[in-house]
Amino acid sequence: MRLAPLLGGLAFVVAGGAIADEGTPVEWIPRVGFDFEHFGETYRITDDRDTVTVINDFGTLLGVTLRSPRRQASWFRLDTNAHLGKETRRFRVDFDGRLERGANRFELDQHASYRAFQEGGEYSISSNHFNERAQLSWEHRFNDLVSLRLRDRFDGTWFAEPDQYNLNQWTNEPRTDLRFHFRDFDEARIGARFGRRSVPDSTSLGYDRVVLDSSVNLLFGWTSSLDLADQWERRRYNDNSVREDSWSHRLDSRFEFAAGDR
């Protein structure tokens, strides 16, 4: 939730840049609707009796979309949604946009949502919570063959009343990639990312990780392709974790031949 003001400001900058481009119109699209959500679960607490839980939530949907055409080099789309239901109130804001200036491209993909449960409702062990998911990237093209991309990805959930079923947690993963573009669809990439997952009330879920990876994608004519990917990962858990540190390696390859043009 602490990132919401910062990401909102970045969204404003990207949208403002897209609007400032000459000849970029902005569309305003209101929405209204109705939705229904059903959840059913059967489980056994004692040997001689099953427990059945059934929750039905229905309500009104309201939303507004602001967007610029994607055919422009710089563009954005903002979706706001509200669900006013029998069991829950849900609010969501989604932003996706790109800002291009010369050899630089900035992209922001953000999703923020808040869910509140009605007092005395059927959701007996749920807690009001806020979720934030965002990805911010910058790509610089040195020339037609080489480009550098920096990206940061964040995902976090905070509960009003954390407990054993509802744990506050967040993950942050910055990444860098160096890309080599050969022909129209041929590309090679080498990259690294550094991830941190924090779950303060858990002794097994938090960790740090470092990932080194590379890939090659080749197209032979219009009928055949070869894809290769290699990844090494080092994962280290918190000192109080019940899990052990680990190494992992993954190698993927695929060759495909099509009878006609792809």
Number of strands: 12
Measured between the Cα atoms of the first and last residue, the distance is 44 Å
Q: Portion of residues in helices?
A: under 10%
The whole-number mean of residue pLDDT values reads 85
Reported for the largest beta sheet, the result is: 12 strands, antiparallel
Low-confidence stretches: none
Q: What kind of assembly state do the chains in view correspond to?
A: single chain
Order of helices and strands: HEEEEEEEEEEEE
Q: What form results from the Cα inertia axes?
A: globular
Strand content is over 45%
Strand order of the largest sheet: 1-2-3-4-5-6-7-8-9-10-11-12
Q: What structural class do the secondary elements suggest? A: mainly beta
Radius of gyration: 23 Å
**How many helical stretches?**
1
Give a quick set of tags describing it.
twelve-stranded antiparallel β-sheet, 65% strand, globular
Protein architecture, described:
The chain has 262 residues and is mainly beta. Helix content is 6%, strand content 65%. The chain contains one helix and twelve strands; from the N terminus they run αββββββββββββ. A twelve-stranded antiparallel β-sheet has the order 1-2-3-4-5-6-7-8-9-10-11-12, covered by helices on one side. β1 (27-46) and β2 form a beta hairpin.
Brief description of this entry?
The chain has one helix and twelve strands, in the order αββββββββββββ. By secondary structure, it is mainly β.
Topology:
Elements: H1 4-20, E1 27-46, E2 49-67, E3 75-85, E4 88-101, E5 104-117, E6 129-141, E7 146-159, E8 169-181, E9 187-198, E10 207-220, E11 224-237, E12 246-257
Antiparallel strand pairs: 1-2, 2-3, 3-4, 4-5, 5-6, 6-7, 7-8, 8-9, 9-10, 10-11, 11-12
